[in-house]
Amino acid sequence: GSTIGIIGGGQLGRMLAMAAARLGFRTVILEPQADCPAAQTANRQIVAAYDDPAGLAELARVSDVITYEFENVPVSAADRLAETRPVLPPPAALEISQDRFNEKKFLNDSGIATAPWRVVDDLETLIAALGALGGRGVLKTRRLGYDGKGQVRLNSLDEDQARAALETIGHAPAILEGFIAFEREVSVIAARDSNGNVAFFDIAENVHKDGILSTSTIPANISDATALAARTAAEKLLHALDYVGVLGLEFFVLPDGTLLANEFAPRVHNSGHWTEAACAISQFEQHIRAVAGLPLGDTERHSDCVMENLIGNDVDSVPAILTERNAVLHLYGKAEARPGRKMGHVTRITPRQ
Ligand code: ATP
Ligand code: MG
Ligand code: MG
């Protein structure tokens, strides 16, 4: 059988390795942290930094194809691997999604609407951007933000507030996005294979708490037209990126049903975890199929469901969850339940309405 290399050893790598094993593949992860969630499910771990030349050479040596489970893989590392092995999704997808400026521009250039945005480099450009966007917005670092980190909301042209916001994000290169009074948030988990075929899971409605995904509910409470618009945007993006694998695309839904794309992740996505419980084929298997050159699987949903993230002390409810009917529990094997840390998730399924 062949071996799939995975850069990154978090819970997404863990679940990718499980899905790969079910299809008869071996997996090798590259991850500097020895005691990581994926170490328990992959066949082998190369304990090295993501840009360590020896680690990368070893990963390339033992892998037939290489994928990744997080979007901050150094592009130089992905490019280096791509010299000798297929790296899927293509490294260009990493490069674009790592920088919110590139990402927003690529979305807009691909014909996908977003919140209005401006590049921010300093106080002067921030004040100008605030003026242009109606005195209200969300300042976001261009790089390395996740779970709402590296973001500050602004609601005035006040210079002191603007200065404090720049201080909060450490004066990192940033963008300012217009503040969107959305009605709800949704995401689409989409896949494309190497022949250009695409498939979509049903759209999830997502609720965030403290900037972190809390629940995904399927079906989403949106019209068929809005759902179609979300799939159409995702399809455009997949083709524009010449993408192979699973991708998550997040949207704001306005009160009139209009969609604004927020960001995309070139990987399996937390708002797609429900697929392991409510579909015959999960997003993880779909991703493995795509990167391994197998046909995409059926995305039909057999159940309605709500996926709940277990964050920090939420794991205290695990004993109760274990006694519930139709609750599909997934724990990531992390020892310490720190605040804000994703420890696991549970998907509660009910018959499809
Ligand atoms: P993730 O963990 O999803 O990668 P992130 O840190 O990259 O998160 P975003 O997805 O950009 O951040 O924003 C996190 C959340 O903050 C959004 O899901 C949304 O609830 C809110 N938010 C972000 N941008 C805006 C905006 N322009 N207007 C209103 N709310 C916003
Ligand atoms: Mg993000
Ligand atoms: Mg997000």
UniProtKB/TrEMBL annotation:
<dbReference type="InterPro" id="IPR016185">
    <property type="entry name" value="PreATP-grasp_dom_sf"/>
</dbReference>
<feature type="binding site">
    <location>
        <begin position="262"/>
        <end position="263"/>
    </location>
    <ligand>
        <name>ATP</name>
    </ligand>
</feature>
<comment type="pathway">
    <text>Purine metabolism; IMP biosynthesis via de novo pathway; 5-amino-1-(5-phospho-D-ribosyl)imidazole-4-carboxylate from 5-amino-1-(5-phospho-D-ribosyl)imidazole (N5-CAIR route): step 1/2.</text>
</comment>
<feature type="binding site">
    <location>
        <begin position="145"/>
        <end position="151"/>
    </location>
    <ligand>
        <name>ATP</name>
    </ligand>
</feature>
<feature type="binding site">
    <location>
        <begin position="177"/>
        <end position="180"/>
    </location>
    <ligand>
        <name>ATP</name>
    </ligand>
</feature>
<comment type="subunit">
    <text>Homodimer.</text>
</comment>
<keyword id="KW-0658">Purine biosynthesis</keyword>
<keyword id="KW-0547">Nucleotide-binding</keyword>
<keyword id="KW-0067">ATP-binding</keyword>
<dbReference type="GO" id="GO:0034028">
    <property type="term" value="F:5-(carboxyamino)imidazole ribonucleotide synthase activity"/>
</dbReference>
<keyword id="KW-0436">Ligase</keyword>
<dbReference type="InterPro" id="IPR054350">
    <property type="entry name" value="PurT/PurK_preATP-grasp"/>
</dbReference>
<feature type="binding site">
    <location>
        <position position="185"/>
    </location>
    <ligand>
        <name>ATP</name>
    </ligand>
</feature>
<dbReference type="InterPro" id="IPR003135">
    <property type="entry name" value="ATP-grasp_carboxylate-amine"/>
</dbReference>
<dbReference type="Pfam" id="PF02222">
    <property type="entry name" value="ATP-grasp"/>
</dbReference>
<feature type="domain" description="ATP-grasp">
    <location>
        <begin position="104"/>
        <end position="292"/>
    </location>
</feature>
<comment type="similarity">
    <text>Belongs to the PurK/PurT family.</text>
</comment>
<dbReference type="InterPro" id="IPR013815">
    <property type="entry name" value="ATP_grasp_subdomain_1"/>
</dbReference>
<dbReference type="InterPro" id="IPR011761">
    <property type="entry name" value="ATP-grasp"/>
</dbReference>
<dbReference type="InterPro" id="IPR011054">
    <property type="entry name" value="Rudment_hybrid_motif"/>
</dbReference>
<protein>
    <recommendedName>
        <fullName>N5-carboxyaminoimidazole ribonucleotide synthase</fullName>
        <ecNumber>6.3.4.18</ecNumber>
    </recommendedName>
</protein>
<feature type="binding site">
    <location>
        <position position="100"/>
    </location>
    <ligand>
        <name>ATP</name>
    </ligand>
</feature>
<feature type="binding site">
    <location>
        <position position="140"/>
    </location>
    <ligand>
        <name>ATP</name>
    </ligand>
</feature>
<feature type="binding site">
    <location>
        <position position="208"/>
    </location>
    <ligand>
        <name>ATP</name>
    </ligand>
</feature>
<dbReference type="InterPro" id="IPR005875">
    <property type="entry name" value="PurK"/>
</dbReference>
<comment type="function">
    <text>Catalyzes the ATP-dependent conversion of 5-aminoimidazole ribonucleotide (AIR) and HCO(3)(-) to N5-carboxyaminoimidazole ribonucleotide (N5-CAIR).</text>
</comment>
<dbReference type="Pfam" id="PF22660">
    <property type="entry name" value="RS_preATP-grasp-like"/>
</dbReference>
<dbReference type="InterPro" id="IPR040686">
    <property type="entry name" value="PurK_C"/>
</dbReference>
<dbReference type="Pfam" id="PF17769">
    <property type="entry name" value="PurK_C"/>
</dbReference>
<comment type="function">
    <text>Catalyzes the ATP-dependent conversion of 5-aminoimidazole ribonucleotide (AIR) and HCO(3)- to N5-carboxyaminoimidazole ribonucleotide (N5-CAIR).</text>
</comment>
